[in-house]
Amino acid sequence: MVFHFSKLPLELALEILQLAASTGSSANDQPRNRIYHTATSLALVSSNVRQVVMRHLLRTVILNSQETLNLFLRTLHQQKSFSSTGSRLSLDYTRHVRHLWSSQCWEPLADQPESHFINYRPFYDLFSRAETLGFNFKSIHLLYDALGDVRLGYLQHWNCTRVTFGGSRLRWNALTSTNSGVAFLREITHLTIWDPVNYGLSSPSHSDGGVPSWISKIPFKLMPKLTHFAFTLVGTRGSATTPVLVYTLPPSESSQGGGTSFLTWALSSDPIAFGSVVQLNVNQPMAGPIPDDSWELAYYRGENDIWQASN
């Protein structure tokens, strides 16, 4: 027996498409190359179905490689063309991309031909209007290239204030040494950092893990609006989860900015006393770094924005 989907009431049809396209709740059970599979398949059914599905598919974008990043950039250029011609494929990505994570963006070498340099500036509008942004530190080039050269000392039309950095070997110079990077840091209110590698503990060990030494390298003084901060503690090899210490600045201190307070708390003799520890659903391997796809899926599940339920 064949059932015609088009005969359903419009509201019910839209609910079914939304449920099929929204895969966040099942991301735990899928490899990263399958989380968009249903939504992308539905987008090929018709232009009308595509318009409905794409807004759910684009809600959280995971760019897991340089190739994926390049393809997405090409799509942004195509959308400009579609918009100018009034194509039915035209879609305003800036309205629908709420969360974006990038895992890899290679910085070109100075002696490479000019044709090898990629302009990531088209990402600026996406970044500025997103609710949260996430970057593996191997992708930091994408961020500062998209920000461009800021001469006014601030980012124009910028609304995104929640940022996550992950991976290993945190690198801040690309942001702290440029006007655009400093302007970006100045806008952050919620900062999450995932790097549970033990480069040396900056505080005594605790049952929930120790505070990593890289905490002292975070440029808190450049983040005057920071009121929420979360970071991975040094985890136990082989553990099924990764501990995250969560700090929230009291309302009475929020107007002063929390960078200095957060650093003081983290470097104290009992850093846990100033916050709470939650467990990130990221496995700790017995050897080697945590795979990039673990951070991608954690971001896709929304585990980066620990405060979203209450703030």
Provide a quick synopsis of the model.
The protein is built from twelve helices and eight strands. The protein has 311 residues and is α/β, with parallel strands linked by helices. An eight-stranded mixed β-sheet has the order 1-2-3-4-5-6-7-8, with helices on both faces.
Features:
signal; alpha/beta; 12 helices; F-box domain-containing protein; 311 residues
Biggest sheet, spatial arrangement of strands: 1-2-3-4-5-6-7-8
Helix count from the secondary structure assignment: 12
Q: Kindly state the number of beta strands.
A: 8
Characterize the overall form: globular
Task: Bin the helical content.
Answer: 25-40%
| Biggest sheet overview | 8 strands, mixed
Number of domains: 2
End-to-end separation in angstroms reads 49 Å
Protein name: F-box domain-containing protein
Organism: Psilocybe cyanescens
Keywords: Signal
Describe the structure.
- The protein is an alpha/beta fold.
- It has 2 domains: 44 residues; 236 residues.
- 32% of the residues lie in helices and 13% in strands.
- The protein has 12 helices and 8 strands.
- Strand 2, helix 6 and strand 3 form a beta-alpha-beta unit.
- The longest helix has 20 residues.
